[in-house]
Design a protein that fits this description.
globular, mainly alpha, MetI-like fold
Length: 273
């Protein structure tokens, strides 16, 4: 063994601890970026309105939009938010349920996919905005037509993600389950669903945000309540602050749905860590 004398040992000075505020910011700086960016955008918006002296019906100031929000919040804003949320929730339940079932069947049976794929692709090649007037004519301007449009726009992303997820199951694990005489239910709950969940949840993130678009498109075609109705109403009377309030509420709903899917992903895929 080599012997090291004390003179040859060099001690490195211990780094001085960071100040508390710098340690906190270095740890949570990623969480600070979003609110700081939002504050900067609002400040830029206010400066642009002040600099160009835009009239309120062209571009209202943030303060004017905030006052409009407070006045609408004291009135019927939450009624319209509730109507849109109901349309989104029902559309997601119907669209995702159909996508899961059909995606599982198509993922398991390639011959069935070859038959159904051309019709599914053809249905998705037509913009929802073009189909929405027909749906309103056939189903009326009530809740059913909005739910149908929302279900239609959320169906395809989750369908494709489910097909890809089911086919990503390791064939060796499938053969192992068969050798252990696993039933169809055990094969589904113990192997196929856990293996397909990452893909399915990826499609669900896209479907959850698209559901907001579907509800608004349905309300544009004809509605008496909802955030899309408020946008149409504000456009008709040149109430631009009302349009901004409705748009911001739609953004908040989409963000909440996306965060809910992230929470669901963290709960269901904790085993991946």
């Amino acid at each position: 063994m080599f012997e090291v004398s004390k003179d040859e040992i060099r001690y490195r000075p211990r780094p001085s601890p960071l100040p508390a505020w710098r340690a906190w910011s270095s740890r949570y700086h990623t969480y600070l970026l979003a609110p700081l960016t939002l504050i900067g955008m609002v400040a830029l918006w206010a400066w642009l309105v002040e600099w160009r002296a835009y009239p309120p019906f062209i571009l209202p100031s943030p303060a004017l939009v905030w006052r409009k929000f407070l006045s609408m919040a004291a009135g019927s804003l939450w009624l319209h938010v509730g109507v849109t949320l109901m349309e989104i929730a029902l559309g997601l339940v119907i669209g995702l349920s159909a996508a899961f079932v059909l995606g599982y069947l198509l993922g398991k049976h390639r011959s069935l996919e070859r038959i159904a794929a051309p019709y599914i692709v053809a249905s998705q090649s037509i913009p929802v905005v073009a189909i929405a007037p027909l749906i309103v004519i056939w189903m009326g301007s009530g809740l059913v037509s909005k739910v149908a449009v929302t279900a239609l726009i959320t169906f395809f992303p989750t369908l494709v993600a489910t097909i890809v997820g089911v086919r990503s199951v390791d064939p060796d694990l499938r053969d192992l389950m068969r050798s252990l005489r696993a039933t169809r239910g055990q094969m589904f709950w113990k192997l196929e669903l856990p293996a397909a969940l990452p893909m399915i949840l990826g499609g669900l993130k896209l479907s959850a945000t698209l559901a907001v678009v579907g509800a608004v498109v349905g309300e544009f075609m004809g509605a008496t309540a909802g955030l899309g109705y408020l946008i149409n109403l504000g456009r008709g009377v040149l109430d631009t602050p009302m349009i901004f309030v409705a748009i911001f509420m739609l953004v908040l709903i989409a963000q909440a749905l996306y965060v809910a899917v992230l929470w669901l992903e963290a709960r269901l895929l904790h085993w991946q860590r």
